[in-house]
């Protein structure tokens, strides 16, 4: 078993990393940052997002395990005091895993260049200088003309993150699809959008065609691209979203109920 460790820079995460490496060595597990079979992240959901993008080209060969050293995370099943149990699970690993869908995004520019991204949580497009205006196409048919702050497109597992903050629905992580949520849309007798989140199926293709050339900010998970247009330079014209052909695989040595986690994070104990 070859294991990589990806941690944040907090003192607690570094302490856990040192302890984990020592216990792995005792158990005969191989520490390999380049070609791992399992990637263990130590920190929180942000650390796991960073690890996901670091090992993105190896998704078909690696499984992820998350240890959280702070607040409860949606991707981190293990606590910092469970190192012995985790190492024992790694030693007795039988390849068990659970897979979740990812979001495929293609950005098309005015000069014909196409950038390709894959998101674990979400992608957003906003205009930071004025109202964003774009045409929304579903399976190549015009659905609506959007005006507002921006749009958030999220995966099922990412639905509890930024998507929820802008009024999107929480999706079961075993669903295969993605979601579109509006950010401060303009709805009046002149301008009209659906005004509610839309959940798409596995075969849906969503296209956003931008009408403006300045002021856009595009994100993919934690990465942000400022899309500035100057005379003679390219600008963003279109974004295309669909369920990715890739998936993320988690080594699940024990079952963590998603809806219990949602309840604990957002509701707490019933009174």
Automatic annotation (TrEMBL):
Any one GO molecular function term: NAD+ kinase activity
Location(s) in or outside the cell: Cytoplasm
EC number, as in UniProt: 2.7.1.23
Residues noted as binding NAD(+) in the record, renumbered to the chain: 45-46, 121-122, 147, 149, 160-165, 184
Tree of life domain: Bacteria
Active site positions: 45 (proton acceptor)
Keyword NADP: yes
Cofactor(s), by name: a divalent metal cation
Alphabetical UniProt keywords: ATP-binding, Cytoplasm, Kinase, NAD, NADP, Nucleotide-binding, Transferase
Annotated function: Involved in the regulation of the intracellular balance of NAD and NADP, and is a key enzyme in the biosynthesis of NADP. Catalyzes specifically the phosphorylation on 2'-hydroxyl of the adenosine moiety of NAD to yield NADP.
Family (UniProt): Belongs to the NAD kinase family.
Name of the molecule in the record: NAD kinase
Name of the gene this protein is made from: nadK
């Amino acid at each position: 078993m070859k294991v990589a460790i990806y941690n944040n820079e907090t003192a607690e995460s570094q302490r856990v990393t040192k302890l984990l490496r020592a216990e792995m060595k005792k158990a005969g597990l191989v520490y390999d940052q380049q070609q791992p079979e399992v990637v263990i992240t130590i920190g929180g959901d942000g650390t796991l997002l960073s690890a996901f993008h670091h090992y993105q080209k190896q998704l078909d060969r690696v499984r992820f395990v998350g240890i959280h050293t702070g607040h409860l995370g949606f991707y981190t099943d293990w606590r910092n005091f469970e190192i012995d149990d985790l190492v024992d699970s790694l030693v007795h690993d039988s390849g068990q895993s659970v897979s979740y869908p990812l979001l495929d995004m293609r950005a098309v520019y005015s000069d014909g260049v196409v950038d390709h991204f894959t998101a674990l949580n979400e992608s957003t497009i906003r205009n930071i200088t004025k109202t964003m205006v774009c045409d929304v196409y579903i399976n190549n048919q015009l659905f609506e003309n959007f005006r507002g702050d921006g749009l958030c497109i999220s995966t099922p597992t990412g639905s509890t993150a930024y998507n929820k903050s802008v009024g999107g629905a929480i999706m079961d992580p075993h669903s295969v699809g993605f979601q579109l949520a509006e950010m401060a849309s303009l709805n009046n007798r002149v301008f009209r959008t659906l005004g509610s989140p839309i959940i798409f199926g596995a075969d849906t293709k969503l296209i956003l065609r931008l009408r403006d050339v300045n002021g856009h900010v595009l994100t993919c998970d934690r990465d942000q691209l400022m899309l500035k247009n100057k005379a003679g330079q390219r600008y963003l014209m279109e974004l295309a979203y669909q369920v990715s052909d890739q998936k993320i695989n988690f080594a699940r040595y024990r079952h963590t109920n998603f809806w219990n986690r949602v309840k604990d994070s957002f509701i707490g104990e019933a009174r």
